[in-house]
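Appendix B. One record, verbatim.
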Amino acid sequence: MGVWIFLAVLISVYCKSPIRSAINVFLFFVGMVGSYYLYTILIAGFFPKSYMMIWIIMTIISPFLAFVCWYAKGKGIIAISISSIIIMFISRQTFAFGFWYFDILNTLELLLWIATIFVLYQSPKQISKVTTIGLLLYFVTAQTNLFWGML
């Protein structure tokens, strides 16, 4: 899921407008999800209906999230808030946190977490606020299941 979050943020932040961001992310998800499930049905010979429905719903939601993510590259409190929420979601894929432990789940996810920080970077002051708030949100939400336990 971290790769999907990173690629969607990357596409949305570097688009020219929020509408274009929504269209590009939606088309990307349609292409990826569509080709994967065509492959699994036609070539691999199985039909994972319940799992497929989750990804179809995520694809339908993606333009709305991309529209909002586009504003993360702006200035002000709204941009910092959106960027912090993005950091929180990617942190949920990267780190495991409990009462007695804090661990990195996967090295690749850690690299994506770092890359997301670089994508959202505008100034040292801005990224320090974003990372601090994002990690605080992560610690607050670490024990909850979001999006059917996918995040």
